[in-house]
G protein-coupled receptor (Adineta steineri), 130 residues
Amino acid sequence: MLIIVNIRQSRRRIQVIPEVTASIHQTSIRHIQQTNMKFIRLALMQSLSFGLLNISFVVYVIYDFATSGQTKNSDQLVINGFIYGVSIHPIYIFSSITFATYTLASAKFRKECISTSRRLGTKLLRRFIH
């Protein structure tokens, strides 16, 4: 939400532009708008994936709270433990999904990721060779 508010506020800022650079300014405005839309899309994808991956855990917590007053036998405890394990893992997966969404949505992130991977790869190779 803060990203969207910031983008809307940046559109309201007024800059004095000489007539000579008006066409260049129009091109830069389009580029800024495209970049803003990419950020909005990225934020929405990240928020949606976070919400979807946390639904199972929220349902489990509600179920656990609702049944906390009941006495449970060993089979029910084992089943609850299994359901807990299954519902908590998507939360851990969120960090990898965030990486995937950044990789899919941002060309700049992809380039930085590739260059960082290459640098790390060459450093590791140098260490293992020497």
Summary: The mean pLDDT is 79. Residues 28-106 form one domain. DSSP finds four helices and no strands in the chain.
